[in-house]
Amino acid sequence: MKLLKLVPDNTNLDFMRWRNFALVISILFTVASIALVAVKGLNLGIDFVGGQVVRTNFAQPVNIEDLRKRVDALELGEASIQQLSDAKTYQVRLPKPEGSDNAASAAVTKLRTMIQKSYPGARVDAGESVSGKVSGELAWDGALAITLAMLGIAIYIWIRFEWQFGVGALVTLFHDVAMTLGFFSITGLQVDLNVVAAILTIVGYSLNDTVVIYDRIRENLRKYRKMAIVPLINLSLNETLSRTLVTSLSIMLALLLLLLLGPDVIFALTAAVLLGIFIGTYSSIYISSPILVWLGVKPDSFLKTDAPPGTRPQEA
Fold first, then answer.
1. DSSP category for residue 57
2. Which of 123, 110, 104 lies closest to 56, judged by CA?
3. Residue 259 confidence (pLDDT)
4. How far apart are CA 130 and CA 85, in angstroms?
5. In Å, how far are 112, 242, 263 from 55, measured between CA atoms?
6. So what's the pLDDT on residue 31?
7. How far apart are CA 132 and CA 146, in angstroms?
8. Measured distance CA(136)–CA(142) in Å, rounded
9. Residues contacting residue 207 through CB under 8 Å, at least 6 positions apart
10. DSSP sequence for 228-270
11. What does the pLDDT read at residue 306?
């Protein structure tokens, strides 16, 4: 029986033909993502800002504006209300009250009493609480983990290949993280420690895809020393295209099913990883590879030039 192939063996797509157009699109979306995060901000979860989070399941669909008015009437501070899976499930986040832990417990009790009185049959889960000091430490540790992961990856690529490859990997990872954060800013999905784990997963996947392509480019730099760099990168991308598509599509299919059928508690994590896999696949082709051209890499860029007269230069 003939095996099914998503990508024929003789595939010869001209990816580099669209590299400048892809660069413009990537720059626009990256700048827009950074601007969104700077202006609109992120819907930071209790892990990062502190406070109380109460999840409520109502017996009947509830209008969010009506619920918001009733919560504001309690005068517990500026509350954030988010609809989860349907109009019966909501999450109410209250700011951390000043004073002892008793004040936080009293705020949650007041909220629970109001909901059960106003909406008969509603089930109010126990409130979670995180102090401001702990949330600040978590935010710092999360940002530090992402930054160190990106720098460590760039250094690894630099040592394994050349500095141009390290720069390409770092720019690619920055692009992927910025786009993911922009997605969370525009959608308003809550950013918590699960999302930090998702971003680190995206960084790892993007690195894996980039290293596979870079390794093939390095092999072809040794093999085709008279080929121009643009056709050589096109050849490398086509040779790794089957692996890239099969890996990405299989992971994305599993994540899509998990997004549609999985529990609400991991919805943001699943959405982040799904988007990140898509962006990481795109950036491995249209960011990490073309940047080698823009940095002046050529088939003879990594050959030693101090060989004795009459001998053939060797690869560095």
1. E
2. 123
3. 86
4. 24
5. 10, 44, 14
6. 93
7. 21
8. 10
9. 153, 157, 169, 173
10. -HHHHHHHHHHHHHHHHHHHHHHHHHHHHHHHHHS-GGGHHHH
11. 47
Q: What is the mean pLDDT, run by run of 10 residues, along the chain of 316 residues? A: 60 83 90 91 74 80 83 77 75 71 74 84 71 62 77 76 82 89 86 81 83 87 84 89 85 89 78 89 88 80 52 45
Residue 139's Cβ-side half-sphere holds a number of Cα atoms within 13 Å equal to 17
pTM for this predicted structure: 0.70
Q: Does domain 51-130 have CATH number 1.20.1250.20?
A: no
Q: How far apart are CA 110 and CA 86, in angstroms?
A: 24
Burial 81-105 (b: 16+ CB within 10 A, else e): ebebeeeebbbbbbbbbeeeeeebe
pLDDT value of residue 82: 76
- Tokens 């121009």, residue located: 228
H/E stretch holding 208: helix 193-223
Q: Encoding tokens for residue 127? A: 């409130």
Q: Where are the domains of the chain?
A: 15-42+133-294, 51-130
- The architecture (CATH level 2) of 15-42+133-294 comes to Up-down Bundle (1.20)
